[in-house]
Design goal:
CATH architecture: Up-down Bundle
Structural class: mainly alpha
CATH superfamily: MFS general substrate transporter like domains
Strand content: under 5%
Largest sheet: none
Oligomer: single chain
Number of helices: 18
Number of strands: 0
Helix content: over 70%
Length: 405
């Protein structure tokens, strides 16, 4: 074996079992969610007759709902000093909403199911990420978050692949696909209950009585809030992936093959997230983050001017690579800049800001799509990416000092 392969296997063996288990839990839930979400925008537009703006509003509000919930679940996990219970509860809520999708008789029911599903995501999100940070050793934190993201995203391309196959087998029978998506959701709940063990809380950590009090929020510190600010501006450039699906539809991709967009994106994401996480434990994380933003800029430009599926596919690959370069890094930076006893609150506040930015980005993207078409939407995303890059370079020196301290 080459030294690179041996180093990779050594790293793999040292990542704790709990991180692997959480990764597989995320993977199963993502298989379920993406089987539904890969088809939902097209189902709403083509079958139920909703507009692109409506899709943008629904996606944005749904993600914002998840983000607001993460604030309280993260703070509660700090107050309790426990993470697993809330993470398992969140996966359970999401699993029990899945049967609503095939049973929904109208858009209103789909919206309700989408929101309740995102509440489940909100309940589990911050405690789960804080749990990864608690379990992972400091020198493997980037690799651990990269691994969790990678396994999560493997589910995100298996789900659409299953959706494609099932749509073909059932002659585009959406409800049948939605029913089958229920199975992996409940498997994920069983796995987190059985396979994930929460580490003992270190005795030296402070007990947090009021995690969301301004005194505690101030303890998060300037480095943490700068990371949040950069991430929020960045999200304005990265609106919902629902618009990647609509972009494929706009160039005439057959209905049954629409989910291939998420397959391509998630494959690029999953193949890059873990290696980038490992690399981030050895090189400057902000440099890798800047590379991720450049990839997003290229993706927006390619998608804005794409004329056939080959160019859309290239844009989607670039989009997936930028996710692999950025999502695990942002989570790692949050874990490193926040005090250990406030990690749940830190991830919750981070996700709140991200959710608000995603709501704004998705609504603006939907409005631009209805007014100017796909080109205006993706060019606006490119403009926000340039602004984010400029902001990152402006504070890069100071932020590097804080994160390396």
């Amino acid at each position: 074996m080459t030294p690179e392969i041996l180093a990779h296997l050594e790293t793999r063996q040292r990542i704790p079992t709990g991180v692997w288990a959480l990764g597989f839990v995320s993977m199963l839930m993502d298989i379920s969610s993406e089987m539904i979400h890969a088809l939902l925008p097209v189902y709403m537009v083509t079958v139920l007759g909703t507009s692109a703006l409506t899709v943008g509003v629904i996606e944005g509000i749904a993600e914002a709902t998840a983000s607001i919930t993460k604030v309280f679940s993260g703070a509660l996990s700090d107050w309790l000093g426990k993470r697993k219970l809330l993470a398992a509860l969140g996966y359970g809520v999401a699993a029990f909403t899945k049967p609503i999708f095939p049973l929904a008789p109208s858009v209103g029911w789909l919206i309700a199911a989408r929101f309740i599903d995102r509440i489940g995501k909100g309940i589990r999100g911050a405690p789960r990420d804080a749990l990864v940070a608690d379990i992972a050793p400091a020198h493997l934190r980037g690799a651990s978050f990269g691994l969790r993201q990678s396994l999560d995203t493997i589910g995100a391309f298996i789900g659409p692949l299953l959706a494609i196959g099932l749509m073909w087998l059932t002659a585009n029978y959406f409800q049948a696909v939605f029913w089958i998506a229920v199975i992996p959701a409940f498997l994920s709940v069983g796995l987190i209950i059985v396979a994930v063990k929460e580490p003992e809380r270190p005795k030296e950590l402070r007990r947090i009585r009021m995690p969301l009090h301004r005194d505690e929020l101030s303890r998060l510190g300037a480095p943490y809030w700068w990371v949040v600010a950069v991430a929020a501006v960045f999200i304005l450039a990265r609106f919902s992936e629902a618009f990647l699906i609509l972009r494929a539809q706009s160039i005439g991709v057959p209905l049954a093959l629409i989910p291939i967009v998420l397959v391509i994106m998630s494959l690029a994401y999953s193949l890059s997230a873990y290696p980038i996480g490992v690399l981030s434990d050895r090189v400057n994380r902000l440099t890798l983050l800047a590379i991720g933003l450049v990839l997003l800029l290229l993706a927006d430009l390619v998608l804005a001017f794409a004329t056939d599926f080959i160019w859309v596919g290239i844009g989607v690959v670039l989009w997936g690579l930028h996710m692999g370069f950025t999502q695990g890094l942002l989570a790692t930076l949050i874990a490193e800049t926040a005090p250990a006893e406030l990690r749940g609150t830190a991830f919750g506040m981070f996700n709140l800001m991200i959710g608000v930015a995603l709501l704004v980005a998705s609504v603006v993207a939907g409005a631009l799509w209805d007014i100017t078409g796909p080109q205006g939407t993706f060019l606006a995303g490119a403009a926000f990416t340039v602004l984010t890059l400029a902001g990152l370079f402006a504070i890069r020196g100071r932020l590097s000092e804080w994160t390396e301290a």
